[in-house]
Amino acid sequence: MKTAPRTRLRDAVALALGASLVAGAFSATRANAQAPAPGPAPAPSSPAPNNAPVTPPPTSTAPGAPAASTAPVPGAPRPFKDIIKDAKETKGFFTLWQKDDKVWIEVKPEQIDKPFLLALVNTGGLGEARIYGGLMDDSGIAYFKKVGTQMQLLLANERFRAPKGSPTERAIKTSFSESLIGSGAVLSAPHPDTKAVLVEANSLLLVDMAGAATTLENAFRIPYALDGRNSSLVKASTHDDNTGFDVSLHFAVPKLPARPLVPNPAVPVVPPPANVPDARSLFLGYRVNFAKLPEKPMTPRIADERVGFFTTTYVDFTDDLRPNPNVHLVRRWRLEKKDPAAAMSEPVKPIVFWLDKNIPMKHRKAVTDGILEWNKAFERIGFKDAVQAKVQPDDADFDTADTKYATVRWYLASGGAPAIGPSLADPRTGEIIDADILMTDGFTRSSRRFVSEDAPKLNAHEHGMPGFLGSSQQFCNFAEQAHGEADFAMDILEARGDIAPDSPEAEKFVYEYVKEVITHEVGHTLGMRHNFRSSTIFTAAQIADPEFTAKNGVIGSVMDYPPFNIPAKGQKAANYVQPSLGPYDYWAIEFAYKPIDPANEKAELEAIAARGAKDPLLAYGTDEDSFIGGSPQGMDPTVNVWDLTDNPLGYYRKRLELSRELWDRIQSKQLADGESYDTLRRSFLAGFDQMNRGLLPVTKYVGGIVQVRDRAGSGRLPFTPVPAAQQREALKILNDGLFSVDSFAFKPEFLASLPHNRQDYFDALTRGDVNRQPMVSVPGTILKLQRDVLDQVMSDVVAIRLMESQNISKKGEASFKLSELYDNLQGSIWSELKTGREVTPMRRNLQREHLRRVAVAITRSSAGQPADARSLQRMNAQQLAADLRGAQGKAGLSKETRAHYAESLNTIDEALKAQIQRAGA
Fold this sequence. Notes:
By secondary structure, the chain is of the alpha+beta class. It folds into three domains: 22-291, no CATH class; 351-627; 679-727 and 746-918, no CATH class. 34% of the residues lie in helices and 15% in strands. The strands form six sheets. It has an eight-stranded antiparallel β-sheet. Strands 17-16-18-20-19 form a five-stranded mixed β-sheet.
């Protein structure tokens, strides 16, 4: 899903079946939740230490919580036995005492200053803005510290390490701070025998531990504040390994911000939450888990940049001679053979995923098969049934938000269609302890959109905010974006008559799609990162062959974002999606999980990782490889999402052909009397979505540089410029598909048949689509894509790369020069000056965009602008001015075209006469 985009570290899991867990669910009155009082949090009052109700605010707070009284308990603490009189004791990791609506945590002396795992799960969300119920949030190592009459909950600083007891370790403690995330009064005197003390749970936990106020403000630009008085502790439970608390936190604002009288296009208005009755008041639920750390830490495995895994990173101050003190550990589950001597053995503790009982029955087989697919990779390294899938019984009493079981959860969202695969690891070793995959009805419903035409779309403001305790993972957008690919595939296949609604073929299509998404997300929970280069390992002929794809798939890794493998018109269909694991997936699992003798581990891991440079089937490139290098699209055209084959440029041409095929078919489609126009509008815009996903990656070939993650001795250099021939081919695709005079031609009667859904109009306004127009703006849609392409190919960064590529090109190898780029663009965009043809409104828009960038280049100087770029643009502008003067007198041009030429000539003349404005002057 980044790691793009971003996945968050979180916690989650279900409590053990039949464990000695007592769900000490004490009632938390939710009357206020049913009729919340919008507005600021009322001033809280300090509760009495003995009979404080569950709902009052904490006696002291962590950052982000509202102000609360910190007045000390008057007099000496009451005897332990007096406070817990008539209370129910539940023994566990932390013993809990419950009486009516009160819960106390018993903290023993040996539990003070002893680290444990703190993990949070969002158990109640908004169904929008990436604030979803069931989402694993973040985790860290925490411990209790008693300071006078206060019990502090501190988050340990695991970023810096040194040998225990060394002077450097003492220096670390004085150099780097830890964080306070909760605090509560010590209510009792020590127990006469155990010396344990009592801390009230609500005073410790009813704080904004998750930083949700910032998450809300980031998503909606509204300064929500925690209202302690109307927040509550809902449930508490404990067993041997975990103690968990469910809290309901109320956030409110006194009023919503007014919309500006005069909208500013540069400052978009973000709408308030749409899925609550009153946007001034909302509740978020969290599961706060205190979990026991493994008694014996797992032996860590050092990560390698040539194989893609999430990592646990720390700064090691053990040796001051090391040039780089950063240590990166592979995030992985602890897998150990029951029989270490056997070639094939079951693991001591398998990786078990529990399917949430809310997952619809029709999708459970696809989810289960997606999970179990990974056993193929583990069998290759000697593990039998390493990954298992179980279904949570309908009457199960364990909580899937606890850190006991990994889960696959089902939730609902009003926009977007994400599936997410985060995990929780021991910061000391990288051992994955818990993982939770979330899937929504959105991406399954969207894949059946030809049946239900009103599937929701992701809104621009649906971004939320990633982890709050220091997340290193990223949100995975695979399912969220793949549903758009599914939509387009279904539009094409339905238009061709290849798949009919409610047919067995349609059911198979959805099954394969859901299985692929789940397999991808399970890969993340196993520690694996994206691999966006794996889509380049097969030829177009191979992925068009049904026998080949059934055996080998269509890409090299299920961790890629592959488009649907749609056959060309008249071609037999092969596998639409990746049917199984790819060669890279087997290799990566081998690197992270293969049992290796510690004495030989370093050498054997080096040998495994080095195979990636020798075997083209193991090609790897991840999130940052796809966008680093400057400019909007990045510099490496071989690391992209939504591409296929070893000739991506050829595939992008095919995407354009498929878009035009779809447009041709729907323009000829005859709707039945009474049928809605929604299908036409949706399919028409889907074609533009595909053009966008095809043409923007094409721009990376211009000034492109391929980068690999090899080390010395591999036979490849880290950086290689894209051959000049491929850069010219990329420009031709852009010219033919986007810039040419005849790129877009639609029947007027068809464009007049694309209204929006009138029933959804006001819902769209509520969600912030304030500019929603009843007609599709074809010129506006095309112009946006043209702007994005020009922003890339005419950027200073691309100019610099084109010039610097000449320095690293092989001797005697022809290079693609900056002058050729500028000449090519100008000739294509202003072709009417040579042909004498009339300039259409859409072409005039494109020419103005090009001219605006030229004028900026020759009148403004910045530190990032190469001098050659400015001088070449000036020379080309002079030539363009001469061509405009020559074209003004040509007969047959409309008044609009002549006015456009005159204005363009004036713009160039003014720019050429202007003095250069230097940045910072």
